């Protein structure tokens, strides 16, 4: 995550002068969902990491293709073991191929988790009040995962003395199905619920809930810019960083294409090609749906880099809008600090 460090330096000053509270502290923290067990980061021993924390009910069964629901579990949750990076080599092409292939990580429909890295637990004492940076990965809302060495927050947390959070959200047909008479843009709703969880629990990890910044790259940056308009009156966050993407960066599929893509998959699954096919689609193994969705081509646009995936965000008047230029002119966005670095500095850079 070194490419993100200059942004953090701009937005968040070093906090090394913060004093630790004279309170005992351990690698287990208490949250509203019960205790969570962390462990020391493999390459930064001053950083504690908490991996694979559920923030929503598993989006399976009746919750597949549904809006996310807050996690209701309790009891001790042990986070995943540290990442093993021994297989990485200096060869650039191998790294590029590795990244492009989703880093070879295991995929699962039950994916609504987040990871936290913090330096707040030091020498048996807790240090609080740190800024919090929540990251949304890119991938054109089609690929991506937090379970990647490229998004390992231990280095960022150590260098900038901040609490780093990475969020998993639903992608492709599971996050942006485009089904008729259904809740749209589920992946963006996942992001909102994750930030609500962070707001309610981050103090236990040494973070300041009043100093949350969300940031993202490419389609993650688009999601950040969308956020400013979707939650103009209740953004939760105090800062936005849209890196290489904003609300105007990518075209969307026409409504008829979105609908056709959904019914193409539902028909192949034997669920029909009209009417409400959601109940049937909830009974199909997720890997079968994923395979069928992967066969659909992306729609062409004026640039190969701006082709539109078959399952993509659509205007719903809640999380995504069709008229961002007009909304920006009317000032209908969250009035928080916003940074949009090049190359796609447009809407975000003019906002106060």
UniProtKB/TrEMBL annotation:
* Protein name (record): Carboxylic ester hydrolase
Pfam family membership, one: COesterase
Tell me the protein family, please: Belongs to the type-B carboxylesterase/lipase family.
- Gene3D superfamilies tied to this protein: alpha/beta hydrolase
- Which residues belong to any copy of the Carboxylesterase type B domain? 28-317
Q: What is its EC number?
A: 3.1.1.-
The GO terms describing molecular function are:
hydrolase activity
Q: Which residues form the signal peptide?
A: 1-21
Top-level EC class: hydrolase
Check the record and name the PROSITE patterns matching this protein: CARBOXYLESTERASE_B_1, PROKAR_LIPOPROTEIN
Q: Which UniProt keywords apply?
A: Hydrolase, Signal
